[in-house]
Amino acid sequence: MSTPTISEKGERAPGASTPQQPDNRPEKQVPPSRLAVLARDPRVLALVFAVLVVLVSAAVGGSGVWPSGWTVDIKTPLNDLDNWLVDNREKSPIFLYFLLHISNAAESSVDGIVSLFDAMGWVGVTLVGTLVGWAAGGSDISRRALRTGGTTLGVFIACGVLNMWAATMETLALMTVAVFASAVLGLLLGLGAGLSDRFERMLRPVFDTMQVMPAFAYLLPLLLMFGVGVPSALIATVIYAAPPMARLTSLGLRSADPAALEASASLGASSWQRLWTARLPLARKQMMLGLNQAIMMCLSMVVLASLIGSEGLGDEIYQALGSLDVGTALTAGVAVVLIAVLLDRTTAAAGERLDATVTVGATRLMTRVRRAVWGLVVVLIGLFAAIGSAIAEREWPDAWTVDLTRPLQDAVDWLTATIGHGVPLVGGTEVWAKGFTVYVLNPLRSGLETTPWWALALLVGVIGWIVGTWRAALTAVICLCLIGVMGLWELSMDTFSQVIAGLVVTVAIGIVLGILAARIERVERMLRPVLDTMQTMPQFVYLIPVIALVGLSRSAGIIAAVIYACPAVIRITAQGLRYVDPAAMEAARSLGATSKQQLFGVQLPLARKSLLVGVNQGVVLVLSMVVIAGLIGGGALGYDVVRGLSKGDLSLGLPAGIAIVCLGIMLDRISQPAGGRPRE
Amino acid sequence: MKNKQIRNTAIAGIGILGALTLTAGCGKADTSSGGGSGDKVVLAEPSWVGAQANAAVVKKLLEDELDVKVEAKQMDEPVAFDALNSGKASAILEDWHGVPKKEKKYVDEKKTVVSGGDLGVVGHIGWFVPKYYADKHPDIKNWKNLNKYAKDFRTSESGDKGHFIGAAPSYSQHDKELIKNLKLDYKHIPSGAEAAQLKEIQRLYDAKKPFLTYWWEPQWMNNKIDMVEIELPKYTPGCEEPAAKAKCGYETNQLEKFLNADFAKENSDAAKFIKKFKWTTKDQNEVAGNIAGKKMKPEDAAEKWIKANKSTWEKWMPKK
Question: Tell me: domain A424-680, CATH 1.10.3720.10, correct?
């Protein structure tokens, strides 16, 4: 019921401490007689009973493994599918008349854009890019337009100076096509979901799966269908990036001002006209936000896609890591962050501008100017494509580059060596990680592994029922059983223990920093660029430094997950606290509550809903790092997915990926309070 | 007003779409050429540095001497075999026979992939401990004594067993089964990626801690660290199959090149060159060491070696 329930519960259940305590905590502010009421609450009784069952059965049983007779062999059919795909890739009509067309279109559009950038030369790309940025900001001399244009110019120059020009262009080309495709797909799905309730109900679990399923797991089937390279990468990216666009489009359509719709209907507009003239324009802001989200997700996938032979910055990073060259990887990572900044600012500015014109209205002159600027962009693209290479070199001149790789490498080496071990008094990260493994991870894992599966299912069901609805409880239990049926119980429990540990750390850090950021303006300002970087820097980059810090272990994976998941939790917490009803805060202050009382008595309880959303996001993000952790010694399901991908073994990678999805949906359901899904 | 905006947006959208299809149209011509045609050669480049060294030297020579356009694409063995089969890659220069199933399917059954002969580099896999540890405990060099020292190798990950640092998932290995079948008191902990394993070994080596690992030659890090091999039960052909019953060490491997069948059949200058390309472990380690150890760019490292070894690579050139 309270924020830390799931996390602390998981940690305590195996150890024999008082499990119902975290549940009592939020209730403490109410008069004490409530405790007696609480004891009679059937939900609390059920929880206490379930926890007791878990503890007793774990102590008595000794081994909680799913009975081997109850598993279903899914390896054989998957192997057959694998073989069929390999044999029929060139013959089957599905490929000849459908899939190959997709694959060819993807490949040729990316190639086309790469050669277009190439033909335009660096001067042309920089110039046109800046112009597009300026036009997106409103193509006038307002601060917004100038700032957007300036950012674009700065990013292009920085990528050139960092000697990443060619790779940046490849990534940008892939991004352009991926963003375009996922925006179109997301828009269509979002339209459907926004207009039809049944369609939305159908799509919701699909979107959940698409986002929780580790990208690695579906890279593999795509690889089998489309082969190595751009098409697989592109399609994987679109699958990953389309859901936020679709979700926000649907949200925008649904939350359109009823009065406006009413007015439009009373004027006799048909439903098509209403959609076209009222609902879509009103949803534009959300759609722009969706596009922005889709772009960010595309960017993170484009880097992952380097694993299956797509080029660009991701490839630079991956190659550099192979020779432990953190400096180069970091430089390429910086270029990725810069592209993220560029695309984020440009779409955000375009969104703001659209919003402004919707409310204020544009003058006829401005509309004409804007149209002229876009025309100019098209003309310039054509012009530079024809003569660009004659004006200047194709690529950024070598003489104008700065080699940052060495200093970056030295800085990282120094840092990891300094805090890695031998720090007086506190010991250093290696010692901490060891302690974390011995005192947290190992007991947690052995606890989960010795708990019988039925006791765990009971506990999950009860929590799901208390937090959400009986339907949530049922879903969670089914997910758990599915894991058992696939024969992945033990591996999943290993992963589960890591996820819980990572989640606790993430939520703890996230809430503390979130509170600080919400209360102290300066902390917030200092954190913002750091959080931006943490979210957009490709995870691969810090895998090697993390090993230097704590060694090849599960802790390394957990650190990576925490780095990745923290920003979202911090942001949501800070936002939730800041939006607490000012009147309530004012009242508390006037009654003479101390700052601490204000925080614990008013702000935190009132912001409980957004804290829960934060935890829920934390679950999704920590899970998405499980696979990455598999790359650096995390083992368990993540390693199986990685192994499946690198061995090209569908029957190994896919079930492990599905098990991760099951864990994700289960955790989502038991961390999701009843009454609406606040994710949007 | 709103109508107008929508119209504008629509016009802009159509414009972008047009531009996209236009560029797509232009691009189509040059993508249709797969690995089969002679004007562009695609090399599959697995993720380890030795493979990068092969690819860099071949690329540089093909481009400078034979004027062939070369693209080196990052892919590991299993993926590379699929690419060779489909013609998306022309050749893989260093294959460790790590995907016997695919090799059988494509080379023997479908005949879409053909052998390109030996690379000349000898691959050797084994179990290794650092020299500073072996010097202190000389009898660890035989696997029979491994259990005696297991407690030295304990970590928080391995619990009360010794920690065995396993290989990256795509590499040929049967360590897990071997540990079980030889009844060794160790826990196999896989690495997930080569980079992760290298970094871990570097970290432990710098701290002078004992460790036991899957390790191999050629490998650029061998120039920087000193390791001693543990003697495993001798390899005999087929002894590692099925893996569940494996009780032996690893085969010393002649690394092999594989070519896309159409590419090989066309017998272009590039194909002839790649078939003849053959160098030594020492050569490869030199280039790889320059790339990874000294942080040179692959093309610079290749150029350096090419300048110093003209007599070697002249033999690879197709006769005019």
Answer: yes
